[in-house]
Amino acid sequence: MINKLPPHFSILLVDDKMENLISLQRMLEGDNRRFYSATSGNEALKIVLRNNDIGLILLDVQMSEMDGFEVARLLQLNPKTRDIAIIFVTAINKDEQNVIRGFTTGAVDYLSKPLDVNVTRAKVNVFEKLYFSRLELKNVIAEKEKINKQLERFTYMVAHDLKSPLAGAISLLSMINEEDCIQQSPEIKDQMSTVLSATHHLTEMIVGILDDARQTNNADIAELVDVNLLITDITRLLFPPAHIRIHTEGPLPVVTARRLKLQRIFQNLLSNAIKYNDKTDGRIAVGVADQGEFYEFYVKDNGPGLQQRDTDRVFRLFERLDYHGDEEGSGIGLNIFKMLVEEQGGKVWVTSEPGQGSTFYFLWRKT
Hints:
By secondary structure, the chain is of the alpha/beta class. The protein folds into three domains: 9-115, 3-Layer(aba) Sandwich (Rossmann fold); 137-214; 218-367, 2-Layer Sandwich (Heat Shock Protein 90). The protein has eleven helices and twelve strands. The protein has helices at 18-28, 41-50, 68-77, 96-104, 117-177, 180-183, 186-214, 227-238, 259-276, 310-313, 333-343; strands at residues 9-14, 33-38, 54-60, 85-90, 109-112, 223-226, 244-249, 254-257, 282-291, 294-301, 348-353, 357-365. Helix 3 (68-77) links the parallel strand 3 and strand 4. The protein is elongated and about 100 Å long.
């Protein structure tokens, strides 16, 4: 659930002189701002603990009983308050020792007395923008995590529901494969062998999905994956029509990766390239370029292509585009592809020309 952004920006002003607090508040007043005031370090700590909407503290360094450095240090020790931005307000010369002490205790900036009105307002405006930007980012991350969990549950349920009927199909196919009419025809026997191999491979993939859904990413184990062999296995599993040819452009590397994750990525791209190809001579190519820290993989097709306006939309969840064909997608596959790549620090993009085809790229970190 996304939290609505607060309608105001709350600022805590801390100074042991009331006239300074009144002056500072008048200087910073705005339509969407709320102010809390404290005349001591202890009072400031109590206000922060009682109010979780404070986005900025302007903290006087020189106060009796507890100075600003100590207040900041205590705020840093509390996980609930350590992320609140603090600007020290001080009449002390900003020598190197005091600056280092201030930043060590949690300050993010300094203001020197007597305060310059324009400088003070400008700095507070910056921190106000940062505060709302950080809240928006938290909401985006929370929503992405929510979608990820929904997709994980959906994947688990689908894989679980497929496992039993697929096992029954394999058993039936194995029985049919033993019939004399199958064994006596080399061509049919070879075709049955291909079907059985593909169904066993699909079973292994479903078991892997179930195992993957039960584990956290921290428990996943990376392994060496030969991408050439991976593409061969996926191609066999997808049963491309006779008029579509999948080939590799140059050798593909052996990478360190979670095999199932990389398999999902290529399977999404290849299945889409097959599904939407509208040419009588369909061609799909898989290739790679070495980009230093990353491998830049691509899957290229000669299908219908995309309009320029759709090259970003295509990766959005549940976004369905008009391919001018009979096939209709779910709007999930390419979004999953994007998330899987970005989870390990890569990025995705597509280049396309209507009528000529598309090339989907992704960066995969080498280690």
